[in-house]
Write a structure and sequence with these properties.
Helix content: under 10%
GO molecular function: serine-type peptidase activity
Protein name: Peptidase S1 domain-containing protein
Keywords: Disulfide bond, Hydrolase, Protease, Serine protease, Signal
CATH topology of the largest domain: Thrombin, subunit H
Low-confidence stretches: 7-16, 20-26, 45-53, 190-195
Order of helices and strands: EHEHEEEEEEEEEEEEHEEEEEH
Family: Belongs to the peptidase S1 family. CLIP subfamily.
InterPro entries: Peptidase_S1_PA, Peptidase_S1_PA_chymotrypsin, Peptidase_S1A, Trypsin_dom, TRYPSIN_HIS, TRYPSIN_SER
Number of strands: 19
């Protein structure tokens, strides 16, 4: 287990008043791409293809996705990056490992909960510093394998109409979720023509694919059993920048997180390529060991 305890110092505390408009998405940092294996450079967007977007999506209602988190990580060399995440408990947030480690682990960070408009300090927002970062011990940055992490919050989040935990699959749930409608959400661009990320939470949906269909569209190097894929049909997809955010399905009236946004193809959302996620059910025991979430049997 890789656990990194962070000092909640004056620098970290000051980050609660950061200007989000000046912070880049993690995938906009050159250091992120430089660590990837040459075989995965296919993921790197060309300059002509805008990144960081959920395209052909719709604006969420305030509080529609109370489990949505915004993860702001600060790295050495004055680099900082934005990602998505999900609320596991009052004390922990789930995200992608590459959101909190680019070469080195983030020195500090802030999680924003309950936000609808990321540019406003809304009364229902909670901005809480990182206390510690837990990265999967088998995370391979060059191949985006085991791309999962949890962040412990420096103080407990307060649950209300705008901040609620998401459910995870039960240990006994053996479904692949293929064929179900997957819902993605985050602060992403709304079209290929957009010049900046959305200020508000956006969401979209598409069918979840079998891994065989996903492998046919990608290749066996990137798609593993521990991945889950969402169809890119109709140009509806998560794209670089909403990494760490949720792929959810509706299950008996509740939102169930089945994936963590990890990677997309460089050709962009309009290409119809599937987007790749970490398969949450593959990591349930690790999540439980690195948070205080109670797993369902």
């Amino acid at each position: 287990m890789k656990t990194f305890i962070l000092l909640v110092c004056s620098l970290a505390l000051a980050s609660a008043s950061f200007d989000l408009s000046s912070v880049k998405r993690v995938e906009e940092l050159d250091a992120f791409w430089e660590q990837l294996d040459p075989q995965l450079q296919m993921l790197r967007p060309t300059k002509s293809i805008p990144e960081n977007r959920i395209v052909n999506g719709a604006e969420a209602r305030p509080g529609q996705f109370p489990y949505q988190a915004l993860v702001l990580s600060f790295f050495e060399g004055d680099n900082s990056g934005l990602c998505g995440g999900t609320v596991l408990t009052n004390n922990f947030v789930l995200t992608a490992a590459h959101c909190v480690q680019i070469g080195t682990v983030a020195t500090h960070g802030t999680v924003v909960l309950g936000a609808h408009n990321r540019q406003h300090v809304e009364p229902h927002q909670q901005r809480i510093e990182f206390a510690s970062i837990h990265i999967h011990p088998s995370y391979i940055a060059t191949l985006l394998r085991n791309d999962i992490a949890t962040v412990r919050l420096a103080q407990a989040a307060v649950f209300n109409d705008f901040v609620q935990p998401i459910d995870l699959p039960a240990l006994s749930d053996t479904r692949t979720f293929a064929g179900l409608t997957g819902i993605i959400s985050g602060f992403g661009r709304t079209s290929d023509e957009a010049t900046g990320a959305s200020d508000v939470v956006m969401y979209s949906s598409n069918p979840i694919l079998t891994n065989a269909d996903c492998q046919a569209a990608w290749n066996a190097i990137i798609i593993q059993a521990q991945n889950i894929c969402l169809s890119g049909a109709g140009g509806r997809s998560v794209c670089n920048g909403d990494s760490g955010g949720p792929l959810a399905v509706q299950d008996n009236g509740r939102s169930l997180q089945v994936g963590i946004a990890s990677f997309v193809h460089a050709t962009g959302c309009a290409s119809g390529m599937p987007s790749g996620f970490v398969r949450v059910s593959h990591y349930l025991q690790w999540i439980a060991e690195n948070s205080d979430v109670a797993l369902r049997q």
